[in-house]
Amino acid sequence: MSESVLSLTLSARRYAHALLGRWPVAEGGAGGRRRADQDADDLAHQALLSFWRAGLLSCEELAEQPPGALRLALLRRLTRMAGELVRNAGAACYDRRAAGGRGDRRFARHFPWAPEALALPRLPFESRAVLALAALERLDYDAIGLVLDMSAAQALARLARARAELTSALSGRRQPHLRAAAHMCESDLHGYADGVLAPERRAEVEGWLERDAEAARRVAQWRRDGERLRGAFATLDAEPLPAILNFRPPVLAARRNPSARKLWRRWWSAVLDGFRPALAAR
């Protein structure tokens, strides 16, 4: 199934807000947008605009691309852009007062009250990225690795660390190491929580969880964290898109700047060549 401009836009907007640790909060009674909201939307706009100028958001191009390839390329570009923005800022992007604290109910129309959503901006940039890709975008480890330029095993290890950091941020204490049997490792538990294990291995993990209450509690917590993060962003997906993110209907960039289209065609071919083996194996 080919991607649509709307699905790509929603995905880019969710991911940009998670990467910058900034939440969409309406100005009290005016329907305006705060600076934190604008920064994330501006980041998504810049990434989408580069694809639009290259003609990659035209109906013809969307229909011709392998399923998921354009979305992964967009998420990878957003990761790099947000990483540069965070490094240049020299400080954490999260500002509780700018995001609207619990005591400021005037700005609560879009604010996610889930504890996991409140804790996410306090995590390192790399942890926010991998959690957003796994929980919000529902990508498997191979796809996460493609976005973050690492192997699937490295993506799983990064996700395990990010989940431990999120739990520590929620509880205020360091997450203890999870002990497992010789035939069972923590990566199996993460794979079970994310639904990516083979059926036979899944049955083995289920049997182990029936005997290990702590492991079962940890798996349930990972699933609950992901569900609450998705719920926190549900209002973001439901509200009308700001004008700067309206790329429908797209206009082929070749009609305006043929040289720019040629340059982006070359870049897209290189990106797609890197994605083809993983996409074919899925």
UniProtKB/TrEMBL annotation:
InterPro entries: RNA_pol_sigma_r3/r4-like (IPR013324), WH-like_DNA-bd_sf (IPR036388)
The protein, known as: Uncharacterized protein
